[in-house]
């Protein structure tokens, strides 16, 4: 098991004798679960309404050995700097073979108990709170949709190919999602030209609907579906969330995880739009997420 702590884009590998060595990790498995329920005035017991995952409280035990007491206290200060509180969360990346999982969390305490009998060794106990208890594969997956079936364009065989008339984008692709918790796309980029673009997850019935809106050539809309964001902006960074139809599902649009113990679940994503060209593109980017490691 390799642990990397990533702070402000800088990676610190807790392996060998550069910083510290990972000795124990606890609380990084199943995320805490809270059951939802309600009961009537005459009801015995409760009616179960499902569950929510609670923030994660986890622990790391690191260990370091130095040649001199001066080096030991230099390393202590170094660890305190790496694990110092920040507004943005730290990233804790665990690697086993080819498998990589990343948590985002804030160190709440860094304890370095000292006993003179320990000599030039030092234990470092780090407690971490992850507001989002799930972890993700840091390498993002992307699915791209371009000009496809349903075209009513007329292509003229000139030396430089041209497209005359309007074209329709009507395409679908299946994402085989292997996470065990839902993934909210980190980015859906719709590059124009396109009119009345609709993106639908046929597995969940949720949609992102821009009916009545035209995205011009060389412009694009970026849609962030994560709970921390929920934004729609154009190339200039201007909010375009009002361009979504009132029945769009920006609040909930996600890739559904398997619920029956299966290793994966198919999410069929459909994209439609009119007045498109070869420059039109819709790209959906997501990270596979898990409830723990």
| Radius of gyration, taken over Cα atoms and rounded to an integer in Å | 25 Å
Question: Looking across the biggest beta sheet, what order are the strands in?
Answer: 2-1-7-8-9-6-3
Which bin fits the share of residues in helices? under 10%
Overall CATH architecture of the largest domain: Sandwich
User: How much is the average pLDDT?
Assistant: 91
What fold name stands as the CATH topology of the largest domain? Jelly Rolls
N→C terminal distance: 11 Å
Overall tally of domains: 2
Largest pleated sheet: 7 strands, antiparallel
Number of strands: 23
CATH class of the largest domain reads Mainly Beta
The secondary-structure element order is EEEEEEHEEEEEEEEEEEEEEEEE
